[in-house]
Design a protein that fits this description.
The protein is an all-alpha fold. The protein has one domain (10-74). The protein has three helices and no strands. Helix 1 (10-26) packs antiparallel against helix 2. The radius of gyration is 16 Å and the shape is elongated. The protein starts with 9 loop residues before the first helix and ends with a helix.
Length: 75
């Protein structure tokens, strides 16, 4: 089975490696591996949002909706 493609974002690559390392050393269901998976999801989502904003894929209404969702969650 071929490995999944390597993500271009260095932060995502770093967290992906951390997930593998934590799973090998502490076990796949360990708190360390779960924390690394959560950090990987956060890094991947952040990179995807940054890329979408930079590429102009979102309309002004979509940007407003995204900002409202993110700011509402932080309050």
């Amino acid at each position: 089975m071929a490995a999944p493609p390597v993500p271009p974002n260095p932060e995502v690559r770093r967290w992906r490696a951390a997930v593998g390392l934590a799973a090998r050393w502490h076990g796949p269901d360990s708190p360390e591996a779960l924390a690394a998976r959560q950090a990987l999801r956060h890094a991947a989502l952040s990179a995807d949002v940054r890329d979408a904003l930079a590429a102009g894929h979102l309309s002004p209404a979509h940007r407003r909706d995204l900002a409202d969702m993110l700011l509402d969650g932080a309050a």
